[in-house]
User: Fold this.
Amino acid sequence: MKILQITSHLNVGGITRYILALSKQLLARGHQVVIASGGGELELQVREMGIEHWRVPFKTSAEFSPQVFWGIRELAARLGVEPASRSEPVDLIHAHTRVGQVVAARISRRLNIPYVTTWHGIYKRRLSRKLWPCTGRMTIAISGPVRQHLQEYFQIPEERIRCIYNGIDTAHYASAPDPSAVERYRESHQIPAGRPVIGGIGRLAAGRVKGFDSLLVSAHLLKKTFPDIQVLIVGDGPRRPFLEDVARRLGVRDQVRFLGASGDVRLPLALMDVFIFSSRWPEAFGLTLVEAMAAAKPVVATKVGAVPEIVEHNVSGWLVPVEDPDSLAQGIARLLRDRATASRLGRAAQIRAREMFSVDRMVSEIEQVYREVCVPLVPGTGGTRTAIS
Assistant:
């Protein structure tokens, strides 16, 4: 099967990671994969993976941007305006991002190519989505809350939604990084040895979504009991100056290390005694949370969005209320004091990640969606597929 993946860009982020993990596994299973996007920071990585990339003017979040219509024309010409004349035919289109959905819908209608979509988040209800849903024959929701959101707010029938959890290479995160690389990482970021270490990973995006400021407040509270505690914040973005100022005002700037983005998150994870997922917004999923679980880290996470589907309280992690730094600090303190419980939760988290959130499981379930959508050829239509909208 030849699959065309459509996305707005190939910049660092959860959607791009999803597409690359999916595409890599599809290639390994004998499929052909093409990615159409506006390009980005990971474009070279795509080529190094042996994945064909078509650069089209989709680097926009505006679904009615002139770029979108130019891109539709460019893709239609590449695939062939008439199905019989396609020079580079594909069997199916898989759309990601709103722009990708709009493009896939137009191409599908024009060339009778079936398409599916993945909804990577919980989105605002807008008139344009109601009038032009562009959801495909099948819609993949990455978690239960996303599925519920699609049913309640966008009236997508239950039979056209498949809930397929995001997946990661659990074996990769379960394998310990080179100890010498960990020590070099520690020394380069001046992280003292022999002290309790907590931390979180995520883009420091504008707004209060990720809740890193709550983590800093919790660190301030924990400093009374653990005066030598170290806090690692892995990631970068426009909110970093604000968070650095919060740390200074709380008197914990010396305890906090802003490490920037990491090419291998196993390195900072190896230094953490407890991983913190402090999101305050209903996250559609939590890739960094699952990565920490796969690395057997005990986790303390806020009970919001898809998190309760990922972490079982006091079984594979510890859940606390949202916007409650006191409870967050108490959960962290418990696991720092009780290493036996921390170890038990970490082992259970690793097993759960392997069983529920592996990339192999994700790709197998997506392949099944592809098989459902790719209907047989219709006799007498010149080899075209039935129209799917």
Remarks:
- Residues 84 and 381 are 10 Å apart (CA to CA).
- The first helix runs from residue 14 to 28.
- The radius of gyration is 22 Å.
